[in-house]
Amino acid sequence: MNPTEALAAELGRALQLASAQVTTAESCTGGGIAEAITRIAGSSSWFEAGFVTYSNVQKTRQLGVPADLFAQVGAVSQEVVEAMVRGALRASGAHYGVAVSGIAGPGGGSPEKPVGTVWLAWAAGDQIVAKRFQFDGDRQAVREQSVDAALVGLIRLAAGEKSV
Predict the structure, then answer these.
(1) Beta strands in the chain (DSSP E)
(2) Sheet with 22-26, side-by-side order of all strands
(3) Cβ–Cβ under 8 Å, residues 148 and 118
(4) Which helix (H) or strand (E) holds 82?
(5) How many Å apart are CA 97 and CA 93, to the nearest integer?
């Protein structure tokens, strides 16, 4: 079992103990978090739904992210991932959720948001915690680190921690 699978399995055990389900709202990871979760046998009992909303239009259409937010703060921002995770919880009915938006590269970065900038937001009911990461490496490395960070945050949240 690789490290990502081990994290997903640990998340599954925590969610089964809590009799809770999780949902994902993904942009830069393109469904990688949901894939890692569903790689675990039995995940149908604790994985509710996954949303891959790569375009801003789909973030608005599927998750209810206010369209004007993109012009105000950009897709890779705390405000957008918080809106994404709220929308995923609302649409899925899951108790726990995670959302991700970032710049995996190799292009698309700026001085304010260089390649490797990733925002993640985790939610447990009404409680939302967001965090900005600056990951190193190529596109695949940024995406893999994002998936692992998402899983670690969900594990901590399911364990009752208030920060991730």
Answers:
(1) 22-26, 47-52, 96-102, 117-124, 127-134
(2) 47-52, 22-26, 96-102, 117-124, 127-134
(3) no
(4) helix 78-92
(5) 10
